[in-house]
Design goal:
The chain is mainly α. Helix content is 56%, strand content 0%.
Length: 77
């Protein structure tokens, strides 16, 4: 490396260190969905169920009902 290159590099680095910090563009967040899975009617129903006492047929019926609710909430009927 030449002395001129080193001096030019030092000048550039010094100028960068002394300059004001560059502000980055603000991070844009995606809009929240209007109906979140975590506050959906189906989830509220699921949290009310005592899964320990469900019979197999009751569990299948509950899954069918929850799937129908999820389809209705998302418009995938």
């Amino acid at each position: 490396m030449t002395l001129q290159f080193i001096l030019a590099t030092i000048q550039i680095l010094t100028a960068l260190e002394n300059s004001a910090p560059v502000k980055s563009a603000p991070v844009q967040k995606k809009p929240a969905p209007s109906q979140s899975l975590f506050v959906s009617q189906g989830l509220q129903e699921l949290l009310k169920v005592d899964i320990i006492t469900l019979t197999p047929i009751e569990a299948l019926n509950m899954l069918y009902k929850l799937q129908a609710t999820a389809k209705a909430e998302t418009g995938n009927i």
